[in-house]
Amino acid sequence: MMKKWILIAVCAVIFAGQETEACTGLLVGKKASVDGSVMISYAADSHTLYGELYRWPAATWPKGTMLQVNEWDTGKPLGEISQVEQTYSVVGNMNEYQVAITESTFGGRSELEDSTGIMDYGSLIYIALQRSKSAREAIKVMTDLVKEYGYYSSGESFSIADKNEAWIMEMIGKGVGNKGAVWVAIRIPDDCIAAHANQSRIQQIPFDDKENCMYSPDVVSFAREKGYFKGKDKDFSFAKAYCPYEFSALRGCEARVWSFFRKYDKSMDKYADFIKGDPSKEPMPLYIKPDRLLSVQDVQNAMRDHFEGTDLDMTQDAGAGSYKVPYRWRPMTFNVDGQEYTNERAIATQQTGFVIVPQMRNWLPDAVGGVLWFGVDDADMAVFTPVYCSVTDVPECYRVGNGDMMNFSWTSAFWIHNWVANMAYGKYSYMIQDIRPVQQELENSYKEALPAIDAAAVKLYEKNPAEAVRFLTWFSTTNADAATTRWKKLGEYLLVKYMDGNVKKEENGHFKQNGYGLSASPDFPGYDEEYYRCIVKSAGERLKVK
Q1: Which chain positions lie within coiled-coil regions (predicted)?
Q2: Which end of the chain has the least Cβ crowding within 10 Å, N or C?
Q3: 277 and 400 in one domain?
């Protein structure tokens, strides 16, 4: 009997017992970007997810090798599938051929989950990355896998992109006893941008556009069979059939898409009532043509959004406190005097494991063209460092096993960023003014350096591809580790400056002294007038000076 080789799926090792939830993904076509890049983004949001950068080297597998599949969220063993002969190198959510895949869970109809399936959404992503040289091939790999082995997860939206095109694919199971899934994939036009955030977004399906649309043969007939849809094929909506709108999906999910879209299309404000929870209003389009081209920095900054400039702005109500904190601790809803209320759910959120912007560039060799912009924790205070898709090593600060959710590490970027962010949440309006310049200094330095790094790498690649890969690995790891060291220094500075609610005075780049070698008396900023009024309203008589 042939020896059985078992490859343990990443979820069992890295994400055992963890659950990703409420993720956000943005997509940018190559003619909608300033330089011709295809870009997508992803915030892996979870209260238990530890931010690490994982990697699989390319490998050749003996015939008959079996691959153990474990559920990405929990590590639960789901079954075995046949391994392919050749797998490709993958770092994070991008492979060596500049294919990138991300996701957001929409759930959908609970009766369509299949506990007997083998392929969960996370395993689909990372297995497809190891087996695909293009986005279209990845779609075929993923849909073939669920057809053969069954789909274990609930409804899912996938961003699937390569150096030439970007797709959104939505998939949901067919329930126990109905192996496989119903799905539809639509290519985002090159001159458009798109987004998804935990709500199915594909409405009508262009069945005749075979070049830009793929779908399961029973995507409509199965909905009819289940009683989800009655009508003509042309009127069929995937979202309405398999993931009907409800208040939380609009306010907590579609609102994030709207906040991104409205930055690049002034007409999007007409959907304000829809995203505030009125499903009777016209839904937003799957994609829009932006009024200006987007850079990689634009996409990174979009991942830092808290509804600024809208009437959902999280700094504009009492929940923000005196220091205008654009965050609300969970749960998402709360009750007062028998009435339920909601907290806003922005793109940037505190419970993020890692955040990425994969950038794919077709005018460069794959080893140079693919850049995974990688950061950890809250996107608002993350630093996106460039990691080329061809690297053969992972920066120490992002390395698997460098700390975990229960064990702090001073060399872990995830823990250093959480340390800084959790200080900032207590005095946000002050500390963000010190955080933002350091963040911009680091990210601008990468922006300025990359053209020269690209050029040097291309020259090396023409002579010796392996040498080019070594160079790009050195650049990627060195910058990420240096950024973590710089962020640790920032944290030390913030702790000293804002200790005990005060603000130390500064002079010529140093904390001011009193003239005798000791600290000058700090400032006592207290709270703003609006917050003091709230205090007076709730406890005024008790606190009144007489």
Answers
A1: none
A2: C
A3: no
CA distances from 83 to 68, 366, 391, 470 (A): 9, 24, 24, 29
- If we measure between CA atoms, which residue out of 183, 185, 67, 73 comes closest to residue 130? 67
**In this predicted structure, what is the pLDDT of residue 154?**
97
Convert 197-208 to b/e letters by CB count within 10 Å (16 or more is b): bbbbbbbebeee
Q: What was the pLDDT predicted at 13?
A: 31
DSSP 489-539: HHHHHHHHHTGGG-B--EETTEEPB-SSSSBPPPB-----HHHHHHHHHHH
In a domain, 310, yes or no: no
Sign of CA dihedral 31, 33, 34, 38: negative
What pTM was computed for the model? 0.94
Report yes or no on 212 lying in a domain: yes
459, 451 in Cβ contact below 8 A? Answer: no
How is residue 385 written in tokens? 């460092």
Taking only Cα atoms into account, the Rg of the chain, rounded to an integer number of angstroms, comes to 24
Give strand ranges (E) for 442-490. none
Cα–Cα–Cα angle for 187, 191, 192, nearest 5°?
65
Distances (CA, A) of 469 to 55, 368, 456: 15, 8, 11
Q: What is the pLDDT of residue 21?
A: 56
Residue 73's pLDDT is 84
* CA distances to 79, 135, 192, 197, 293 from 167, in Å: 29, 7, 11, 15, 19
Q: Same domain for 394 and 481?
A: yes
Q: Which domain holds residue 269?
A: 6-305
My answer on whether 413 and 521 are in the same domain is no
Q: Among the residues of 335-397, which ranges form H helices?
A: 366-369
* pLDDT for the residue 379: 98
d(CA 414, CA 441): 20
Question: Does one domain contain both 66 and 143?
Answer: yes
235 plus 203 within the same structural domain: yes
Asked whether residue 334 is assigned to any structural domain, the reply reads no
Q: Which residues of the chain have pLDDT under 70?
A: 1-21
Report pLDDT for 540. Answer: 83
Task: Let me know if residue 159 belongs to a domain.
Answer: yes
Alpha carbon distances (Å) from 248 to 97, 160, 315, 503? 38, 26, 21, 40
How far apart (Å, rounded) are the C-alpha atoms in residues 257 and 253? 7
Residue 107: closest CA among 37, 177, 22, 26: 22
**Residue-level pLDDT at 19:** 40
CA distance 60 to 64: 12
Count the domains in the chain: 3
